[in-house]
Amino acid sequence: MTPLEARDLAVKASHALAAAGQGDMVWGHAAVRDPDGRGMWIKAPGWGLGEVREDRLQLVSFEADVLEGEGTPHKECHIHLEVLRAQPQTVCSVHTHAPDAVAFAALDVPLLAVSHEGALFGGEDVPRFRDTGGLVSTPELGKALAAALGDAPAALMPKHGLVAAGHSVPTAVMHAVLLGRACRTQLTALSAGGVRTHSDADEARAKRAECWPDSQLEAGWGYLLRLAATSRAA
Ligand SMILES: [Zn+2]
Questions:
Q1: All domains of the chain, ordered by start, with CATH?
Q2: Which of 210, 67, 87 is nearest to 142 (CA)?
Q3: What is the residue-averaged pLDDT of the chain?
Q4: Which of 37, 51, 170, 231 is the Cys-Cys partner for 221 at CB 3.0 to 4.6 Å?
Q5: Mean pLDDT confidence for 73-87
Q6: Ligand 1: distance of its center to the CA of 27 in Å?
């Protein structure tokens, strides 16, 4: 990947998340690791995910300095900086305030493999970052969040949102989208009377491999990009 490609993918990641309904007005962001090791590409504050363009991006260093682009960095840039610092294999991280994730986290019940999306975690509960429900606005909080996420595809941030990561931009974005959908499906079942059947750990592990190989995650990403382009053209 070149820096130009990283910039392009940072724009596309933002648009895909918006198309999937993970936007929260101007809050939430996706960050793409700079291939030259200078930090990450992320939208500048003040823009919604669907409004991101290449000239609305920042290159933010691991010291949280803006090296290219306008303005100050997002207060929560430390989420991405510390996830990318902790995980050399991670290319992209996502943080959104997806309402389904926030509502589900408020119930404080395990995430079950109710659907294909729920099998993303292979029968394990989704990790949760519980140190604060406020902004992840310091390197220390970012490090704690990265530790809570570990090598999981995504984690819930109760009272706040979600964080996701991936070894590519499509996988990171889709991990965020699938967690949001898994939360919504389980919430729907709970509100209709409760979950009476779901995949056990063995089936969930098998479904994770069957349903969510990179090729399928990339197919979902491609769909979201087409959906985003259609909505922009409308
Ligand atoms: Zn946030």
A1: 3-228 (3.40.225.10)
A2: 87
A3: 97
A4: 170
A5: 98
A6: 7
